[in-house]
């Protein structure tokens, strides 16, 4: 028997938390929410999507047969692992596919570089995710039924086991995976990733040094087996930190030559730039390999002839030969998807919603669109690192940010309904108070403290902090330095939805005497700026659906995060509740029990929203736009849940009927090294 669920009604763990009475009652309850979610899908078992096994025979894209015949590639069975990952036909919405064609992405980001081990991104929008493969996988979990939600799915690691006291996790890699240049993937790559990148404090890798399981040690057992030894007992939950973007090894056979440990004549800067964005191809484990990068124009990727996944008929994946990333803007991603010149958009700028939905309703439209739950939320991050402030002004400002009454005043000064209407007229936006958005499996409305719009209340709180307009220019003056209260708010210049919210809060905060100075920054330079902690406040999307996904971006889980509260040379000036948050992360990770985790997440939500750790703005649902010629794009795929839709949809399984395939730019070719 199959069940059909509406995603909006599926918040099992959130419901549990309320039923357990774990939540904290708050004075102001969240207003009623109207869901726009139209996703419908069947939930399936954990083992229904794929397994690992040897098949009787294998097939490959026909043009690869020719490359094998010409002696340019070994035969497909020699390129595949002994037991490849096998996608099951029953879980494919359109079944086994045909080879060929092009998948056209359009993105607003630009590749920073290809050394993802050192924290570089490749431009987002699914390009990082096409190149990197990680020990475990989170994206497809949206489709798995509640009773099977026992942590991430296998990927490069096909299995793992724990010792009796849960302090040692032994992981088994798929044996015989090769990088796209034919080099063996094995524990040498794992040791390089963990020991020489994650644990090296000179490298800004995506897991911070010693944060994984409180400082796990890695022990290599053989070419395909390794174990983590943890200082304290863990649970399966810790594995979520080994999914994208954290647990994704890089090509050690290329990178070692630029790492100072292996060549002392190299600097860490040399290492960071070892795989610059203009030098392709690079060896990858992903389904497609970047082979051409024309700056500000396009990244062209060709199928990886060493890809290690197949379908049940033995066809090596991916089905699609070529993938494009046109380098334009995020709004253009939606425009081109609607026009049919792009194949995909995570429609996340509410300003485009009405028009895009209208156009996609036409039965002749090239694209289909479905709204999911509200998982896109925006927040203002205030910099709490007072002991890192360089000027007296910044010291005083950050001191104010550390006062709960100041954060409350900001929250009361913000009219979230008006912010939402500035983004898009209509029912899309709903107030966001920080913490988990309503579409998160861990959202608990009862644990969420609502600080409603109340400009007079805001003014009273500001006066209580000694902030008055001493020079009569309409802007409050700081009691210490006497200067005007001006907050620089940094945002990504390419994101229209961010800019509109900066504009909205600029005028709203002016009403209570606070001047916002908007500062835009290019998205490619954004991460290094944020990681340096050199900002007053940032307005950006929160990406906070799970406590385990890039926890360091949201929570004080290590000395060097979150970026809005770094540790200075003088030490860590944590706010009292931040210590509690860090303990709750440990508590969450220490159990696999869904009800216990939901209860912990509710406690986090209460702390986050009672203390206004971030100033939440609004949250909206997103719609996924997929061109109708693309097969196996499951219509239930959420834009963002366990991971972004580019992962959740499983692109290696997508295919296009032969008569609808678009001509390849580089037919008949694969990356040459
Ligand atoms: C960007 C986009 C998202 C998604 C991710 C994938 O953040 O805004 O929609 O494509 O990249 O990494």
Question: How is this structure best described in words?
Answer:
The chain has 2 domains: 3-30 and 375-621, Dipeptide-binding Protein, Domain 3 (Dipeptide-binding Protein, domain 3), CATH 3.10.105; 46-340 and 629-660, D-Maltodextrin-Binding Protein, domain 2, CATH 3.40.190.10. The protein has 673 residues and is α+β, with helices and mostly antiparallel strands. Mean pLDDT is 93; it is low at 1-25. The protein is globular, with a radius of gyration of 25 Å. Helix 1 crosses helix 18 (594-610) and helix 11 (404-413) packs antiparallel against helix 13 (455-464). The strands form 6 sheets. Strands 16, 17, 18, 19, 20, 21 and 22 form a 7-stranded mixed beta sheet that branches. The chain has a 4-stranded mixed beta sheet with strand order 5-15-13-12. Strands 8-9-11-10 form a 4-stranded antiparallel beta sheet, covered by helices on one side. A hairpin with a 5-residue loop joins strand 8 (157-162) and strand 9. It starts with a strand and ends in a 25-residue tail after the last helix. The chain contains 19 helices and 22 strands. The structure holds alpha-D-galactopyranose.
Number of strands: 22
Distinct small-molecule ligands in the complex: alpha-D-galactopyranose
Low confidence ranges:
1-25
**CATH homologous superfamily assignment of the largest domain:** Periplasmic binding protein-like II
CATH fold call of the largest domain: D-Maltodextrin-Binding Protein, domain 2
Mean pLDDT: 93
Report the CATH C-level class of the largest domain.
Answer: Alpha Beta
Distance between the termini: 50 Å
**CATH architecture classification of the largest domain:** 3-Layer(aba) Sandwich
The percent range for helix content is 10-25%
